[in-house]
Design brief:
heterodimer, A: ABC transporter involved in vitamin B12 uptake, BtuC, globular, B: ABC transporter involved in vitamin B12 uptake, BtuC, two-stranded antiparallel ribbon, ABC_transp_permease (chain A), ABC transporter permease (chain A), transmembrane helix (chain A), transmembrane (chain A), transmembrane transporter activity (chain A)
């Protein structure tokens, strides 16, 4: 059975679609088990996510975070690395943004702070990914385990910094002071207002554009540069890459730097865009959700944007759903996310052979 | 001072128990070549099932049974993905952890309407502490009396069980035929296959054992250590058990010591809150909490000893075709 005989649309379109459908079918069974009507639930979900301007804004705001973490996971995937530390990298990226804003917001205008903060998010996120990358490349420790450990280390570090150094006097919860407004990423609705266009108040901000730019850059990097070629070669066959003269450990390190930096951009959206101060736990699982987004998006920027919007819609629609059907919690979205990872990731081979066999033309040997 | 030390060690045993159970669970799975980062999810599922069943049936033992069932079911999903369909072990583990994190809260809210928690357990719904014979009588004996009555006596059955599982695991893994095969499929599955033994069957049995032990760990959290299920109550203990497994280099006794060390750090961290040490000053709690992870990273990087896992770990076994 030769792979080449299977039509491309089956591999790129049909099989992923069937896997996602399976995940949704099982999710529907869960909703049925709770005693609610899955179709009605899906209706609320879609309405909540796309039915009105504000809903769409929220959907795209969630999608912004998911594009960053999805890209982060898939860049590493392409090089054969599993970066499970997006959560920690996003956390530390946010720390970078927060520190810059706290430092410069009183003295600098927005157009100085914004690029610096974006750079800071990238550098901090990348730095947090650098240590696991270095340890994998030079000391042979497994990147999956190290990045998991670094998620916990990031979490403890943040608690320590917030409680002991960055907490604003007189505040109950460990959070920094609110930044001056010139360190706020403008909301998109504010930018549309002068033109008389009302898109509804939502946290959607300019960071969304940064996410789209990142998609284009990642696409260019992976498929249209010499670096990307090296990256894909290492991911496909590390031994062959070594023989071809590609330095595997160098590739590992810079791929992880890019991956961590992309995850760090979550900090721009959350800290500069929405919260406007440093706080704990703003990453809220986006790092892990990025794995689902990358798997569903087949590690391609276009797929990732689509998958991120879908998951963003689930996040936003899930809130609406919980409001309309009180017996359902927003956590149902986490279940769906897990099922997508299961069916389009872990069980991707389950139906692949059978479906491919259906479309394989008999070849006379 | 002596009493404080005893109290810290006592707490160490309590905190270490779920780590020991989960780390031994991981030992069986990983020794057979199946990477398991789903310890966390299986433990959480066990905790939820135990608390839910104990609340409904009023018996901690029935709760334990359901915990094992839930956890083994998830272990079989992991096996189905990794063994039968040669899926990525890490992706499968992440899937299980994610599904459980959402599903426990979703079902909990629907069944009990307490915001995702289960009802508080009391009486037979919990595993209560067992006073060993003569514990009270010997309490006044200096030194040994305190050690016996405070440290050794007065734990629930699952704590003693966890410690008993360590020599049992050692025996199974190193002294039985199944153990030999288990280690062999983790190192060189082709050789095992050549000998006419099914690689898949050995691995499936390994993940089932892993499921049983994770179920016990979960039941401990919700029906022994606490009195009911709370959202995300495993709180990273599954990952810490994984760290202990690596730190103990996939061997039962060193794994036990790693779990005790991590448990001890946890117990000390709680005690040290706001306490200034002479000459050093106050050590931030977070610095102690983070030590298990830092130590594991250092060990993996070969800065303190060297951790080398089973050779065939994480690799799907594909039988060669003629």
């Amino acid at each position: 059975m030769s792979q080449a005989k299977v039509p491309v649309w089956v591999n790129v379109g049909l099989i992923p679609l069937i896997n996602i459908l399976l995940a949704f079918v099982v999710s529907a069974l869960v909703i049925l088990a709770i005693g609610e009507n899955p179709i009605e639930a899906a209706g609320y979900l879609v309405y909540g996510a796309f039915g009105y301007d504000e809903g769409i804004g929220y959907t795209l705001y969630y999608a912004t975070n998911l594009i960053f973490t999805g890209l982060a996971v898939s860049v590493a995937f392409k090089a054969g690395l599993f970066n499970i530390g997006g959560e920690g990298q996003a956390y530390i990226g946010g720390l970078g943004v927060g520190l810059l804003c706290l430092w410069l917001d009183a003295s600098m205008p927005f157009w100085v702070i914004a690029p610096l903060a974006i750079l800071g998010a990238f550098i901090f996120g990348a730095a947090w990914a650098y240590i696991p990358a270095y340890l994998q490349a030079k000391r042979g420790s497994h990147i999956v385990i190290t990045t998991i450990m670094f998620n916990f280390i990031a979490s403890s570090l943040m608690v320590y910094l917030m409680v002991n150094w960055l907490k604003e006097e007189g505040r109950m919860s460990p959070a920094s002071r609110i930044f001056e407004e010139n360190a706020w990423m403008p909301y998109l609705y504010e930018l549309f207002e002068p033109f008389g266009i009302d898109i509804g108040d939502s946290p959607l901000n300019l960071t969304f554009l940064l996410a789209l730019v990142c998609c284009v850059l990642v696409w260019g990097l992976i498929w249209h540069t010499r670096w990307g070629y090296q990256l894909r070669t290492v991911g496909t066959n590390a031994t062959a890459a070594e023989y071809a003269g590609i330095d595997n450990s160098k590739v590992t390190i810079w791929v992880m730097l890019i991956s961590g930096g992309l995850a760090g951009f979550v900090g721009v959206n959350e800290i500069m865009g929405v919260n406007h101060h440093l706080l704990l736990n703003f990453t809220a699982g986006y790092g892990f959700a990025g794995i689902a987004v990358a798997l569903m998006g087949r590690n391609h920027p276009i797929g990732i944007v689509l998958a991120a919007i879908l998951f963003g819609a689930l996040y936003q629609g899930g809130a609406e759903l919980a409001f309309e059907m009180p017996s359902i919690t927003p956590e149902i979205v986490v279940v769906i996310q897990g099922l997508v990872i299961l069916f389009s990731g872990a069980l991707e081979n389950m139906l692949k052979g059978k479906i491919e066999a259906l479309f394989t033309r008999p070849v006379t040997a | 001072m002596f009493e404080t030390i005893i109290l810290i060690l006592d707490a160490t045993l309590r905190v270490s128990t779920p780590l020991i159970l989960a780390a031994l669970a991981g030992l069986f799975s990983e020794r057979s070549g199946i990477v398991d980062i789903g310890l966390e999810g299986k433990m959480l599922a066990g905790a939820f099932a135990a608390a839910a069943a104990a609340a409904v049936f009023g018996s901690a033992w029935i709760g334990l049974m359901f915990a094992i069932l839930a956890s083994v079911a998830l272990a079989l999903v992991h096996g189905f993905a990794c063994i039968t369909h040669r899926g990525d072990h890490i992706v499968s583990g992440v899937a299980i952890n994610t599904i459980v994190a959402g599903l426990t809260v979703t079902l909990g809210l629907d069944w009990f309407d307490l915001g995702g928690q289960t009802p508080a357990l009391s009486g037979d719904g919990r595993f209560t502490s067992i006073t060993l014979p003569f514990a009270d009588a010997l309490a006044d004996v200096p030194v040994m009396g305190l050690i016996y009555s405070e440290l050794i006596s007065g734990h629930n059955i699952l704590v003693y069980l966890a410690f008993a599982f360590v020599p049992a695991t050692y025996w199974v893994v190193y002294k039985t035929r199944f153990g030999l095969r288990l280690r062999a499929v983790g190192e060189n599955p082709h050789a095992v296959d050549t000998a006419g033994i099914s690689v898949a069957f050995v691995r499936y049995r390994a993940v089932i054992i892993c499921g049983i032990l994770c179920g016990l760990a979960g039941a401990y959290l919700s029906t022994a250590h606490n009195a009911g299920f709370l959202k995300d109550m495993s709180a990273g203990k599954g990952y810490m058990a994984l760290a202990a497994l690596i730190f103990g280099k996939w061997r039962p006794v060193p794994v036990l010591l790693a779990c005790l060390l991590f448990g001890f750090l946890d117990a000390v961290a709680v005690r040290m809150q706001g306490v200034a040490l002479p000459g050093i000053g106050e050590i931030p709690v977070q610095a102690i909490e983070v030590l298990p992870y830092v130590l594991t990273v250092l060990l993996l990087a070969g800065f303190i000893g060297k951790a080398v896992g089973p050779k065939a770990i994480g690799k799907p076994y594909v039988k060669e075709r003629a």
